[in-house]
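Protocol step 4 of 5: obtain the predicted structure for the target chain.
Materials: sequence only (see below). No template structures provided, no constraints applied. The aim of this step is simply to have a reference model before the mutagenesis design in step 5. Sequence pasted as it appears in the construct record:
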Amino acid sequence: MKNTIAVLALSAFFTFSACKKSETTNLTTNEETQAEQFSVDSVKVNDSIKLNDSLTIKYSSKMLVFPSIKDKKLLDSIYFGDKNVQDFSKNGIQSLLEKNKNEYFNSIKKDSKDWISDMKFAQEWYSDLGMDLKSNSNDYLHIQYSWASYEGGAHDNYGFSERVFDVKNNKKVELKDITSMPKDKLEALLMKNVNKMNGGASDDKGEINNSDMLLVEVIPATGNFYFDDKNLYFHYSPYEITAFAAGDITIPVSWQDLAGTLTPQFKERMKFK
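Step 4 output (structure tokens):
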């Protein structure tokens, strides 16, 4: 009888241990699966050539790679700036950057034949393209695209494009997905808030307000936006709404300003009460 009880007890122990091991294994698997749900990598190209004693050309480019994103429509939207992207793997993006670099160098070489001998002083021209992950929260992926270049003239030029992607529904986020506020009312808020984040321009009297450098009478509510838990932000490149000296301008619109117009789906995803 004692032997029978011992066998039953031992059997129960192994059964309990097996269940615990299974639970632990499942937990570990679930954690690993969650960790693998989103991953990001990047590729870069950085090179230069010297056409003659007067002109050096530099090219740099960085692109992100998303191994865990499989939806082609979403990937096409993420790489909207280059319609030649067909292979979204790391090797594919790297090959594309090399191709773009060679095309840029060859273009400058070809165009410079008629005027390069007339250059009177040494110059360094460049093209710089960037793609940076700014945030990944609540299944919203915010990517900032940037460009800067100089090919002669008084100064270089640069600009930004902000895009937010809904990786849960595989699409780019539009303003209508966030708020139902009419465009004219939103644009009135942009004008009201234009000086909340100054671009950094100054003179001998101190900082210059963005509003003092406006080139437009109405600040457009464009698709160049992003957001966090405090504000919706609209980003404007030089010359878009202000003079170049003002720099790039970011205008915040608080969620309080948009109260009553936020879509239920957006409020739920952002965990707004």
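Step 4 remarks: The chain has five helices and eleven strands. The first strand starts at residue 41 and ends at 52.
Proceed to step 5.
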